[in-house]
Design brief:
Mean pLDDT: 96
Helix content: under 10%
Order of helices and strands: EEEEEEEEEEE
Largest sheet: 7 strands, mixed
Structural class: mainly beta
Number of strands: 11
Radius of gyration: 13 Å
Low-confidence stretches: none
Length: about 110
């Protein structure tokens, strides 16, 4: 079992920035962020593997940056140029190479116009 501890959500004005953090209780192959807006399905935001291979949703490319510190089992999501459409609950996800997946409890991000 893997525990994930998230932090960094909050309220910010459009155009502002926030940084999310997620720390896992052990080393993880792939870590990432997903988000779920009210009335919508959960969607991928960005992922990063232990070898720092990254993927991004088209909607956040150029604005969000995912990174990780393997020594701390921590993944970060730097969110810049935030838009009201980025408002959602952001969930950390951890995937082991053999297929096990774990979710954090979520952190709320609200972007005001």
């Amino acid at each position: 079992q893997v525990q994930l501890v998230e932090s960094g959500g909050g309220l910010v004005q459009a155009g502002g920035s926030l940084r999310l953090s997620c720390t896992a209780s052990r080393s993880i192959f792939r870590m990432g962020w997903y988000r779920q807006a009210p009335g919508k399905q959960r969607e991928l935001v960005a992922t990063i593997t232990s070898t720092t291979s990254t993927t991004y949703a088209d909607s956040v490319k150029g604005r969000f940056t995912i990174s990780r510190d393997n020594a701390k089992n921590t993944v970060y999501l730097q969110m810049d140029s935030l838009k009201p459409g980025d408002t959602a609950v952001y969930y950390c996800r951890a995937d082991q190479v053999w297929g096990s997946a774990y979710w954090g409890q979520g952190t709320r991000v609200t972007v005001s116009s």
